[in-house]
Write a structure and sequence with these properties.
By secondary structure, the chain is an alpha/beta fold. The chain has a single domain (about 30-210), classed as 3-Layer(aba) Sandwich (Uracil-DNA Glycosylase, subunit E). It is about 35% helix and about 10% strand. It has helices spanning about 45-50, 60-75, 105-125, 135-145, 155-160, 185-195, 200-210, and strands spanning about 30-35, 40-45, 75-80, 85, 90-95, 130, 165, 170. A hairpin with a 4-residue loop joins strand 3 and strand 4. The two termini are about 20 Å apart. Residues about 205-210 have low confidence and may be disordered.
């Protein structure tokens, strides 16, 4: 089933349950992109992967722009860095709310936002989930596959691998701040290989295997 919306930012009108920002700051970096996307990239929070000023995930920070650059090269992203155009791609965070500089989300705040993240993920209903970094990867593997107990959370080893989930294929991405020689190229090659495959069969296969 396809979503019918022309909204690029926060297409489902989510309202975060708390606000720790100043009066002139953005409340959150809401989900952004193509609400009918097959590819869904999941980051940590705006302080890590960007969006505190733009309101757009994967902007501003070095790690965010490195992710954006990979998806530009593979044909998903066009337009400006601050407000890009996404095709067949959706971006969001496990913790969408912006926090004051130097503050990290508490576990309670991650837990409070989990239901919002889950609702948006299921509404997008992508074929390929691409969590970025340890926090997002751990969450996606625990909640959307049956394999977290069998997988060591070694991001260097998991980077750009295909993991079958419950109705999804999961491709973890090591945080760009930890990339070594060849990591960027490995991710580009994996995306190109998936695009060249019949990846829309992922849901049926993953449901049986994951």
């Amino acid at each position: 089933m396809k979503n019918v919306t022309d909204r690029t930012s926060n297409p489902f009108g989510l309202r975060p349950p708390f606000d720790r920002t100043g009066p002139d700051e953005r409340t959150a970096a809401f989900g952004y992109g193509d609400a009918n996307a097959d590819f869904h990239v999941i980051g940590d929070h705006p302080g890590v992967h960007g969006g505190k000023r733009t309101g757009v995930p994967f902007t501003e920070t070095d790690s965010g722009l490195a992710i954006q650059d990979v998806f530009r090269e593979t044909g998903f992203v066009d337009g400006s860095e601050r407000e890009p155009d996404l095709e067949n791609l959706y971006w969001n965070y496990v913790h969408m709310c912006c926090l004051p500089n130097g503050h990290e989300p508490t576990q309670a705040e991650y837990d409070e936002l989990e239901r919002f993240f889950d609702a948006e993920l299921r509404a997008i209903n992508a074929h390929i989930l691409l969590p970025v970094g340890e926090r997002a990867t751990d969450h996606v593997l625990r909640e959307y596959t049956t394999q977290r107990g069998r997988i060591e959370l070694d991001m260097a080893d998991l980077h750009a691998r295909e993991i079958r989930g419950r109705g999804f294929m999961v491709v973890p991405i090591n945080d760009p701040s930890a990339w070594e020689a060849g990591d960027r190229e490995a991710l580009v090659e994996r995306l190109e290989a998936i695009l060249a495959s019949d990846y829309r069969q992922t849901k049926g296969v993953a449901t049986l295997v994951g």
